Amino acid sequence: MQAAHNAQVAFYLTGQQADTKLDAIAELDLRPALFAYRRDLTELRYDFPLVLVPGRDDATAVESLTAMVDAELAAHAGKPYADRLRHHAWALERELRCLLAERGGSGWLVMMRATATQRIGTDREVADSIRALAAALPNDAQLLDCDRTTPARVVAHLWAAAQRPRRAQMRAEVERLTQKLADILDVAQACSDAGRSPEALRAAVGTVHGPVFDFVAFSRVLGRGKAAPGLPEARSRRLHWLLSVLQGQRFVTEDTHAYGFVFTSCADALRAWRERLPKAVELLKAMAIARLEIAGEYDESRHDTLFAAFGAGGLEAAELARFPSYLVQLDAAQMTPADAALALEALDAGLPFKLLLQSDDILAPPALGSEACSLGIANRQMTGAALASGNVFVLQSSAAQLYACRERLFAGLAAAGPALFSVFSGASGQSDGVPPYLLAAAATESRAFPGFVHDPAGGPDLASRFSLVGNPQPERDWAEHALSYQDADCQWVREQVAFTLVDLLACDRRFAGDFARIQAAAWNGAMVPVAAAVALPGGAAVPALLMLDNANRLHKVMADERLVRAARRCLGLWHGLQELGGIHNSHAERAVAQARAAWEAAVAQPAPVAQAVAASVAEAPPPAAPASAEAAAAEPQRAPGEPYIETARCSTCEECVRINSKMFAYNADKQAYIADPAAGTYRQLVEAAESCQVAVIHPGRPRDPNEPNLEELLARAAPFL
Amino acid sequence: MSTTTDELLRLYDKHYELEDYQSGVPRWCTGCGDNAILAAVQRLCRDEDLRPEKTVFVSGIGCSSRFPHYMKTYGLHGIHGRALPIAEGVKMSRPELDVFVNTGDGDCCSIGTAHWIHAIRYNMNMVVMLHDNRIYGLTKKQASPTSPLGLKSNTTPRGSYLEGLNPLTITLGIQNVSFVAQAVDWIPEMLYQIIRAAYHHRGLGFVRIMQRCPEWLPDMFDPWIRDPQRMLLLNSDKGVQVNAGLRKVYPNVQDYDPGDIHRAREISSQHDPMPVGVLYRDESAPVYEEVRHAGQLRQAARIQSGLEAEFDKFTIWPAGDPRAQARA
Fold first, then answer.
1. ipTM metric
2. How many CB pairs lie under 8 A apart between chains A and B?
């Protein structure tokens, strides 16, 4: 037993096999134990195949076949034929999956549905069920399985859906402006001498009723009226220039000259951007001037200088958002460092670029250093730099999660600013028997390619912008699942098994030499699960993982130290992401610990707390006193006996100003006030008070004691004091 | 989404003072409530920076309908009872103009009743001010449909024999009503706020303004003017908010939700206390010009191609004609 253990440790440390009890795994066709029941994906119901639905303008443009079938079945739930429908629906779904697996890639839903239907059966009941389901499965949709082209197609489809409303809006605006400008020119033409000539009139009336008219006489009669002066030369030139720009724009047209917005290299995209920027400025300037011209408000003296300097400082984000954004599809394996630098610069500058960075292989050995695998270094570099820019929408996801995060994908594509989508397609070509979907899902499960989203529009701080999405059990180091198996005595055993990076590496044939199967006879207590071995620093423990063969028999396979080191590194990267996402964040934990210590210290000494409470109570009353003092000060200080009007209640009835327009005047809101109390008699004040409809005039005391009939006036003024 | 360009262009916009909207000296009697309404509307135009060339006042016949003559904007002084259809025509052909309608209790509730019912239902974007002085003033004191029971006038010397109509409950009973408010000309602050709320409302803002006629019915509203307790001010953040100064003079203030049409109908039926404020408001009611808008420009080329496409469905081409193949 000790010899076997020594041989294992030797293999662990050196990767060299010296013992017959350790077998190479290359011929054994093993896969990680947690892949149990997932050998044949066509037997399962899961997110794929995806359905790309045309004509929708939101995230539902990408659907999952399973979800669509389930929704349709739910709509028919409770009906007498629901059971049969479900049976046939699931059979159809399975046949579609098999078809896709055979033909590979994608196809039109309508054609595949026909073939699948034939395979299920041709009796009337099947036909009825298929007809009931037909509403849920649109004819013009595409069916997509998970392979190398999937990320590009999904992102391109969602991008087109996000652009459609924006393009339509701009096109409608341009058309409207063109139409209205053309109308101005048409009217000017019709009122001019040329427009009243017999030829022009004949063309306007047309051929059907032409013979009825005498166009020469017609023109003569019209010409007797005053001819309109016609458009000024400058304005006519401007209108023609506007029309030429609006009709010649290539941003949102549908014809062959339209600009394309999909690129496969950042350098090309930037070149196109630079070329088109002056045209974009010109188009926006033309649209603004056109709006003014149509309203008849363009004033050359004021607006010419304003528009001469238009766009000199470049376009700002709100204006850029009216144009379509640029979709750049990059392949991480073929991207040059220069291209990567250009991409990061474009993202940092806030250009409306939507970059899709697709990796097909994240386990390739790195160019430098002695690490076992690079863990998708190209993606890590790009996403890290984009996160540092702060203004970029970053989404990382494996292809398996694309349906689950389609809402966020769409949000990033529809937003105005730059976006980076880092996707692992799973189609590395290095894993036999593991389809791309499974490999992509395993990459996320094993923390080799975790999912996250950074949305600058989510809020002001990192907590509201950054979130870890699509990761199983994100608060744990590794995702753990229960595995039930029968041991040698046919007893059921249930174990919690963690899915680590080493499980992922076991799927890749390049690392086959780093694994060795331990024969059952040599199993010993020093073998620990990989997760435990990663946590321990030393080399005394032998990491072993559970793997299955074709006959679903369990084997224990050990990995060497190189892979455990890689797993440790992967865990370190995962911890960093966790902290960003607020899980086990060291700063937060330290602050909480400090606060708790302070609170415990405060609780331990009750007397000072009571004093603090008493002090806060004493502070409360004083603020109330200044408030009441302010309210008292708001009343205007008026000399006693001075006449006044409650101006705010004046209803502008003209009574007082008609009596004496010097004493009573209107303010800017056309409500009366006493402009000059000395400009009239007390009698006028009293008469005004009596005739005021809302009784807001207060005559006060008389200024002149010698005015006649003062007693009578004072008596009359009494109710108004 | 305001860009620097929009900001710069706005700098050049002209700002109008209240006097810039005044055209001529009003010929209304001194003490007439129409003066208060004129002042409130001119204040609104100034505060909202309405452009005189984009604003239209439409009226029928009556003292109320002298209004467009005193506003330095576009205006239409139409025939008796037809203010509303004219205003609807203006709105349909030039939906970007701000349309205000000045109509009276005779113009709207008597000869113009048929138009009134359908105008409420169309719910086009405009402000309708019903100057309700409960009498035919311009023609010198005849009873109107809103005159109270027992009013002695030149046509009812022994007192009018029918209960007066309540324009509020009538309007609230029409389908698709979206905004009903009552104002009084002797509380100018509420009058201004209510007209402003009607202006900002999306749809037809119907404001019934109790208006004094000092010449023929000088004492009609005295009980309500003299006793502030008989005025019930409705306070709501979806309608008009009653400020502290008003509360001191008119303490009878109630917090009210203008979203409930049954409550609105109930409260509109009472005369004592007289409710003042926004009684009902529904921003989601469909607006006729938006419902009918095709969403596309009717260009000559588009109309022609549409007609050609329709006619092509019935065209029989001679055999061998290339256009037959093209269609197939």
1. 0.81
2. 83
